[in-house]
Specification:
Elements: H1 5-25, H2 32-56, H3 59-74, H4 76-83, H5 90-110, H6 116-143, E1 173-179, H7 184-190, H8 196-204, E2 207-209, H9 220-229, H10 236-240, H11 248-255, H12 258-264, E3 269-274, H13 296-302, H14 317-337, E4 345-354, H15 380-407, E5 413-417, H16 426-429, H17 431-438, E6 443-446, H18 464-472
Parallel strand pairs: 1-4, 1-5, 3-4
Antiparallel strand pairs: 2-6, 5-6
Length: 500
């Protein structure tokens, strides 16, 4: 114990915030996201130990100083979360935090003790606080064995492979998902915003609008998984438990869906693009781990002293907003370039816009949303910023559509379909109206040939790919009866809402 404890304590203290954060969010993210952040944290603790060991030539002193440095750097956000319940800001608390660290470091530097007992105590403390997140993470894996998309228990109805031979000339399919994009009639009624200009531009390009479309759920991942798997998720409460918080499986249903498997059997490639992390169970490979607000690495570093730092490596609001803007623009650029990739292909593209964070103005200019509270984005002020960001995403969607149509050798199928509508506050509109708004999103189809004349006006998005397959691939999938289930206290509390 004497030989390892000086190095052990800074490493264990460094990995605790990562493990604790993962344990609290493991129902939404794959364990793969843990290893990179965990390795970086452990390496940081070890590097600090080596640095202090070289400076002071004493392992025990190096271990104590490295442990203090780890706490000072990585635990700052934990400290401010507990203390800053008052009007004090991060920056006003930082001098106090650093003063405590400096005093502790001076005490370590001046003591004549060999500090063996202190290092042992730090190691025991670190091990003790790690026990709970490690135990919970292990038990979660035991209690939640993985399910595969091919598992017949998942789906109420089977989906047969199309009886069509592979061949050339298959249209590329673009499924474009702007997050929380409200249906035009709802925008006009509750937002006092007329989206008809955008709709006319889509129609001029050949799109047909499902004017009364609705989604089966009011949670993004559930709607996308339901659409891409052509069925309701009605069996999940029984398989996972009605009180389950696990949405990781639902995210995996987006990455590997029945629609992509059916098309794969016909020679289609699956291209998955996202400006965020929502449609990925693990990290989005196309964007920086520091760009997505719901990424484990981002949340971990956001709790460190870096929360006070701007620029490329900082995590101030301005720094994170700028990284998010870049990831949005990069994702749209990737989408516009996909027609040049070999096909046939299914391209699933998701952008968090017009959903918050509200960082774009109507013409794409930088904006800063003033209300940083948990519900600020859903207030009436948030609705005004939402509309401006919606106007910007309209421009990007038209640009992307024009690029796809111009570069496609065979006329493609393009679906611009929101996962759901806007998340308003019940105190502003009432619970029933909010639930109704939430399941009414935009749904527009570019359908080569005569298929657009057969597009159902009252399409439930669970049937979108059933409709496409029936029109273009010779299938006879029955259209499922339309139903919507609002978001309640728990993800799998499915209670059917009345159609309004």
């Amino acid at each position: 114990m004497n030989a390892v404890s000086p190095l052990l304590s800074p490493i264990l203290l460094a990995v605790y915030p990562v493990l604790s954060l993962f344990e609290h969010n493991q129902s939404e993210v794959d364990v793969q996201v843990l290893w990179r952040a965990l390795a970086l944290a452990a390496a940081s603790g070890a590097a600090l130990f080596v640095l202090f060991a070289l400076a002071f030539r004493r392992g025990t002193k190096a271990g104590a100083l490295a442990s203090l440095a780890v706490i000072a750097f990585f635990y700052y956000g934990i400290f401010t979360a507990d203390v800053a319940r008052s009007s004090l800001s991060d920056r006003s608390l930082f001098p106090l935090w650093m003063a405590l660290f400096v005093l502790a470091a001076l005490a370590v530097l001046r003591t004549k003790s060999d500090l063996t007992n202190l290092n042992r105590a730090l190691s025991v403390f670190a091990l003790a606080i790690l026990v709970i997140p490690v135990y919970k993470a292990v038990m979660y894996r035991i209690d939640h064995p993985p399910l595969r998309i091919s598992d017949p228990r998942l789906w109420p109805s089977a989906v047969q492979k199309p009886a069509v031979a592979n061949g050339a000339g298959r249209p590329d399919i673009y499924f474009i998902i702007p997050d929380d994009y409200e249906r035009p009639d709802v925008l006009k009624r509750y937002f006092n915003y007329d989206d008809s200009g955008f709709i006319r531009r889509l129609e001029k390009r050949g799109f047909a609008l499902a004017g009364q479309s609705r989604s089966p759920y009011s949670k993004s991942e559930f709607n996308m998984a339901s659409t891409l798997n052509m069925d309701y998720l009605s069996r999940l409460p029984k398989l996972l438990g009605r009180s389950s918080q696990d949405v990781l499986l639902v995210r995996k249903m987006i990455e590997d869906s029945r629609a992509s498997r059916v098309l794969g059997s016909l020679g289609y490639r699956y291209i998955h693009i996202d400006s965020d992390n929502i449609t990925f169970a693990a990290d989005n490979p196309h964007i920086s781990t520091r760009a997505a607000p719901d990424n484990l690495t981002y949340l971990w570093l956001r709790d460190s002293v870096l929360r006070l730092v701007g620029g490329r490596y900082g995590f101030t609001d301005a720094a994170t907003d700028e990284r998010f803007r870049k990831s949005v623009r990069s994702a749209f650029a990737h989408l516009e370039a996909t027609p040049k990739e070999p096909g046939p292909k299914l391209v699933v593209f998701h952008t968090l816009l017009p959903h918050d964070p509200y960082v774009f103005g109507a013409r794409g200019q930088d904006v800063t949303f003033p209300d940083q509270s948990d519900t600020g984005h859903s207030t009436r002020q948030g609705m005004r910023y939402y509309v401006r960001q919606l106007e910007f995403v309209n421009l990007k969607l038209l640009e992307a559509t024009d690029a796809i149509l111009a570069s496609s050798k065979t006329p493609p199928i393009i679906v611009i379909q929101s996962d759901e509508g806007f998340e308003a506050l019940p105190e502003d509109f009432g619970e029933a109206v909010v639930q109704d708004m939430r399941v009414k999103g935009l749904s527009a189809f570019y359908l080569p040939g005569a298929a657009k004349h057969r597009l159902p006006q009252s399409l439930n998005t669970v049937n979108s790919f059933r409709f496409l397959f029936n029109q273009y691939f010779g299938t006879h999938y029955p259209m499922l009866k339309s139903a919507s289930y609002p978001e309640l206290d728990l993800p799998y509390q499915f209670e059917k809402m009345p159609v309004r």
